[in-house]
Design brief:
Blueprint: E1 2-5, H1 11-23, E2 27-30, H2 38-41, E3 51-54, E4 57-60, H3 62-72, H4 84-113, H5 120-138, H6 154-169, H7 186-194, H8 197-220
Parallel strand pairs: 1-2
Antiparallel strand pairs: 1-3, 3-4
Helix pairs in contact: 1-3, 1-6, 1-8, 4-5, 4-6
The structure holds glutathione (GSH).
Length: about 220
Amino acid sequence: MIKLYGASISNYVNKVKLGILEKGLEFEQVRVAPSQEEDFLKISPMGKIPVLEVEGKFIFESGAILEFLDTIFPQEPKLIPNDPWEAARVREITTMIETYLDIPARRIYISSSRGKEVEQILLDEIHIVLTKGVKALQRVVRFSPYIAGKTFTMADCSAFANLTVIDEELRKFYPNNHPLDDLQGWKEYVEFMKTKEGPALVEKEKERLRKIIERAKVKVE
Ligand SMILES: N[C@@H](CCC(=O)N[C@@H](CS)C(=O)NCC(=O)O)C(=O)O
């Protein structure tokens, strides 16, 4: 049995979960938070989630996890297409989303979720970075109907898990100039993805957890 360690509020846990669900694999989710405890660092050296356990062995890094699962369970859909050019495109899109959009966007939404004030200078700086990233992404996405083409791939796992969070979390900071609003095809793509079983499930679970976290914050305040 595959075990996926991590919380359903995490983009990268959800990225892996989307791949697992789309491939129809049986799995168990072990709900753990990121941790710098020695025991957790043994299975996840950066202390991050997700971690995957298969046959008593552990894998960390969401991309490595999905590539591994796609190799040992080669049934459709192939998260990494067999065609090397298509495979490269899937990896390009995934890297672009995470490196040029999610990592910069996190500097805003993680600070904000921890109750820190986000300064205008940071918002301006990140807006430039995200605008550049969105323009670059626009050149390579297909949305026909999936982000990299006709089939569901790892790029969809990353896009749905990361870009929906960036879209929602940055809305209050960029109410009139959200960089993702310039990504043509994005809104229709999200609506299409939400009609699918796996993404709908991931979204529902994320929303449920968010409400619990919001309620807990209100109690503390
Ligand atoms: N590159 C990693 C990123 C994973 C990641 O950043 N996970 C977040 C949760 S979404 C985390 O564990 N953060 C806690 C930390 O950075 O210490 C991957 O693809 O798995």
